[in-house]
Design brief:
The chain is an alpha/beta fold. It has eight helices and nine strands. A nine-stranded mixed beta sheet has the order 1-4-3-2-5-6-9-7-8.
């Protein structure tokens, strides 16, 4: 049985963004629909998290359930595209999203495939205020959609247990990111609905690292995530942070 719970919505929510994603929530699990870019990106995201978690806890990333026994928070979980594979890797997953429709879609899909995931409508800061902590916190493709970045990053950091890991991915605030992620992806190629991203909300890696430090997270690695048009695949690239990038950090003592 999939558990769903409600957390009050407070300061980091951007109502326009929540409404925008709520309108297309039914398409989360359509690999050719409006979330097709995330479906193509997912193997890279999953592999990155799995491998760093396994290395941190000295486990075999390919040996069965490398996240067995670990609690994991997927903040901004959407329809559950990351929550489900993290559950299959052995983690005990809590998925939180500000959109009630996203949570409903995620819960129904998890139940249909027999996965037990604790889905909740709410925000990072409300959950942090409740005192909840996890071994691993994921904040992937979400920080560029929140209203109060500093509060969001600080709240995410507070929810990582001492010695635990936080993963974050977002878009860099560069001219190249505007050209590819907004002009190209939204207006030329039509990969994403127009208005999905606001370039002013893109963050430089130094800004993210500084915000996470306020929540007790020390960044360990930053890698670029690049798209190859010919193969239509994403890959990691340590030398190209110009558009998409991922990072992870370790939580210090609370």
């Amino acid at each position: 049985m999939v558990e769903t719970a409600h957390i009050p919505l407070v300061g980091t929510v951007d109502p326009a963004d929540v409404e925008r994603f709520s309108r297309i929530a039914d398409e989360w699990w359509d690999p050719t629909g409006k979330f097709a870019p995330l479906h193509r990106l997912n193997p890279v995201r999953i592999g990155y998290v799995r491998d760093r978690v396994a290395a941190h806890w000295q486990r075999d990333p390919l040996g069965g359930d490398p996240m067995q026994g670990l609690s994991l928070l997927d903040i901004g979980c959407g329809g559950g595209l990351l929550s489900e594979p993290m559950t299959r890797l052995g983690a005990s997953v809590t998925g939180v999203d500000a959109s009630e429709r996203n949570i409903a879609v995620a819960g129904l899909h998890a139940e249909s495939v027999g996965l037990d995931i604790d889905y909740r409508q709410g925000t990072a800061e409300a959950l942090a205020e409740s005192g909840a902590q996890f071994d691993v916190v994921l904040a992937l493709e979400i920080v560029e959609h929140v209203a109060d970045v500093d509060l969001f990053l600080r709240s995410c950091g507070r929810m990582v247990k001492p010695g635990g890991l936080l993963f974050l991915s977002t878009l860099n605030r560069t001219a190249k990111a505007w050209a590819l992620a907004i002009a190209g992806a939204e207006y030329v190629l039509g990969w994403l609905p127009r208005g999905t991203h606001d370039w002013k909300k893109f963050l430089k890696p130094s800004e993210v690292a500084r915000g996470l430090r306020a929540g007790g997270i020390e960044t360990q690695e930053i890698v670029g995530v690049v798209y190859a048009p010919l193969s239509r695949k994403w890959s990691l690239n340590r030398n190209d942070l110009d558009v998409n990038y991922m990072l992870y950090g370790v939580a210090g003592p609370k």
